[in-house]
Design brief:
binds S-adenosylmethionine; 12 helices; Helicase, Ruva Protein, domain 3; elongated; alpha/beta; 281 residues; seven-stranded mixed beta sheet
């Protein structure tokens, strides 16, 4: 039997009694047209080991294997899904490796992972993304991730957009981030309360990456923590904590103190973070 000969996901869910457990953020994608599209955006997959966090009953897992992934490392926390995933493992000539555990704790490089595709659980998705953005060296050449739409927008937002803030700045300091498609709540079983979106991240060329995400996180947290205030006001506290005067800091970074954070370019935040790192007392 091959992966495409496996019984429909609804049958698998019924046979194994896999009702969705809300505490694990379980909303399943049973429409293979959508999972195939996510798999295509992850490819080409020849020779590639893809990690999938939270495979659940395995819709996206099947699509990644059918699209030709050399290996899929599926990390699932809920052991009820293991028998259903085992059927996929057998039908795929062992190209599926099942890891029972927490995706936040698994070290992808221990499994030779170079790409990630996941329909992430809402409650831990942002944390996982930050883990992958701050991993050094960056082990992935592409991330294809489904989030709730509001979080996806916060990752892909550009300066001036309503959703522009800390997450967009951190993500786009190391990667290109683009929306692949929006996915309405009704595409899931059971439907969540909000819509979702799939985004694609690809690392920037090394010379264009900004590496000090720690200082950047501190500056952006302070600036967007008071997003309606001018920077001379919102950065006053963090300046003081670090023995700095806010006006000379903004001047040295060539940033207008009367601007609000959403009006800045990402490179402005890099200069603010550089100054903070180099001059904090
Ligand atoms: N990929 C499946 C799909 O698209 O139908 C299921 C997606 S569902 C939104 C999220 C999955 O992540 C669930 O199977 C859940 O059990 C699993 N999960 C939740 N928290 C997890 C964690 N910390 N590590 C690994 N898996 C997790």
């Amino acid at each position: 039997m091959s992966v495409s000969d496996l019984p429909p996901l609804r049958d698998v869910i019924a046979r194994h009694g896999l009702s969705a457990n809300k505490s694990f953020g379980q909303h399943f994608l049973l429409d293979l047209n959508i999972t195939d599209k996510i798999a295509r955006a992850t490819g080409p997959l020849d020779g590639i080991t893809v990690m999938e966090v939270g495979p659940g009953p395995g819709g996206l897992t099947r699509s990644l294997l059918t699209a030709g992934a050399h290996k899929v490392v599926a990390v699932e926390m809920d052991k009820r899904f293991i028998p259903a995933l085992d059927e996929i493992r057998l039908a795929s000539d062992e190209r599926l490796k099942i890891v029972l555990g927490n995706g936040l704790k698994v070290d992808p490089s221990a499994h030779d992972v170079t790409r990630i595709a996941s329909n992430l659980p809402y409650n831990v998705g942002t944390k996982m993304l930050i883990n992958w953005l701050t991993a050094r060296p960056i082990f992935w050449d592409r991330l294809v991730l489904m989030f709730q739409k509001e979080v996806a927008d916060r990752v892909t937002a550009r300066p001036g957009d309503k959703a522009f803030g800390r997450l967009a700045i951190l993500a786009q300091s190391v990667a290109r981030a683009d929306n692949l498609m929006d996915v309405p709540a009704r595409a899931f079983t059971p439907p969540p309360k909000v819509d979702s979106a799939v985004i694609v991240l690809e690392p920037l060329p090394e010379s264009e990456r900004y590496d000090d995400l720690k200082s950047l996180a501190r500056v952006t947290e302070a600036a967007f923590g008071m997003r309606r205030k001018m920077l001379r006001r919102s950065l006053r506290g963090i300046a003081k904590q670090n023995g700095l005067e806010v006006e000379p800091w903004l001047k040295a970074a060539n940033v207008d103190p009367e601007k609000r954070p959403e009006a800045l370019q990402i490179s402005d935040f890099h200069r603010l973070a550089d100054y903070l790192r180099n001059n904090a007392g």
